[in-house]
Amino acid sequence: LGTTKIAAYLVDLGDGRTLAAGGAMNPQISYGEDVINRINYVVTTPENSGEVRGAAVEAINLLASDLCASAGAGTEEIVEAVVVGNTAMHHLLLGLPVRQLALSPYVPAVSGALDIKARDIGLAIAPGAYVHLPPNIAGFIGADHVAMLLAIDAGRAGGVTIALDIGTNTEVSLVDGDRITCVSCASGPAFEGYHIEQGMRAAGGAIERVEISADGIRCQTIDDAPPVGLCGSGALDAMAQLYLAGIIDKGGRMVKEHPRIRTRDNRREFVLVGAEERDGGTGVVFTQKDVRELQLAKAAIRTGIQTLLKAGGRSEDDIVRMIIAGAFGTYISVPGAIAVGMLPPVAPERVSQVGNAAGLGARMVLLSLRKRDEARAIAACAGYIELASAPGFNQNFVEAGYLGRYRMK
């Protein structure tokens, strides 16, 4: 149950096969694009809690119905469910108090694993079925990150490992031997295509790759469809390519004159796809404001990584492995993310992009009581750092907003 998207899997408990998979936008986004706005919506008017909770429940029920239909089954045959999400999503789904999540030190009302009758939260599955919710860690580090750590076998990482689950709320862990330390980064919805001038979700026609060379500019779209906008990976790639071409400086300003740069409404923008290239249709642009949105998002993540390294007495050189999870993390250009300083400079062979690891972890927990115990053990041993309260946070965040491959102090 992600802040922006919901992913669902229908599993055969007899043999462990995934029978169907699907996804949908989280309708709670209409109450706020990030968790803080949703929390404020509920806190301001407590009656809104049922409305926000109901939106998520309805979406889950619709996904369950769709997946069952595709597998030739009925929702009444679903006898067990597992839901993972960050702490705010967990609390909003269960109707738990959320006021304290918006105030330092961001203490969850419930941290331990829960087993709840599905009917008690409105899930339309088998009578008597239970929903299992794995434990939360602390702050906004919830069961989704626990599931991700379980899926990547973090307890046997072998060497210093940085594990990221990138989304509207990005969780980062430093795994060092038997120690796991986590931070939560409010990276915002830019990586999901929101707050970008012509941003969109990852669908047909979304530009997902950009390449600028002496021969011109090349934009790769999902499904090779005509370009209509930018998804998160395309926006990050555009920023990286413009920076590498010298069109954007280290501060993020569009400075270099270029035939594709124009000023509209007193704002500079780079034309990725001109109207003439689309037979008179609307072109696709990447604006100065888009750069600023991405700088904030990438600064949050890079600051989180740096905070963990410093707290653990480690440096970038000590990183043996970097694991990137999440739908956005699957498709980003790692060299581009390193070029703009979102990620530390780790050799490509040490980086793994593993997709929806939280979803895999949820399925592991669904199928195995032993994995549920392992999830509890991960949550129990994981340390947590409140990012905004960490020493040097403000300076690190400002430095991390600059573009380029450099070493943070």
Task: Note the topology.
Elements: E1 5-11, E2 18-25, H1 35-44, H2 48-71, E3 80-82, H3 87-94, E4 114-117, E5 130-133, H4 143-151, E6 161-165, E7 170-176, E8 179-185, E9 206-213, E10 216-221, E11 229-230, H5 232-244, E12 261-264, E13 267-273, E14 284-287, H6 288-311, E15 321-325, H7 327-331, H8 334-339, E16 351-355, H9 357-367, H10 369-381, E17 383-384, H11 393-401
Parallel strand pairs: 3-5, 6-15, 8-17, 9-11, 15-16
Antiparallel strand pairs: 1-2, 4-5, 6-7, 7-8, 9-10, 12-13, 13-14
Helix pairs in contact: 4-9, 4-10, 6-11, 9-10
Strand order of the largest sheet: 16-15-6-7-8-17
Low-confidence stretches: none
How many helices? The count is: 11
- Rg on CA atoms, Å: 21 Å
**N-to-C span:** 36 Å
Q: Helix content range of the residues, please?
A: 25-40%
Q: Could you give the order of the helices and strands?
A: EEHHEHEEHEEEEEEHEEEHEHHEHHEH
Largest sheet: 6 strands, mixed
Total beta-strand segments:
17
Strand content: 15-25%
* Helix/strand class: alpha/beta
Overall pLDDT confidence: 93
The outline comes out as globular
Quick overview:
By secondary structure, the chain is of the alpha/beta class. Helices cover 32% and strands 22% of the residues. Strands 16-15-6-7-8-17 form a 6-stranded mixed beta sheet, sandwiched between helices. It has a 3-stranded mixed beta sheet with strand order 3-5-4, covered by helices on one side. A 3-stranded mixed beta sheet has the order 10-9-11.
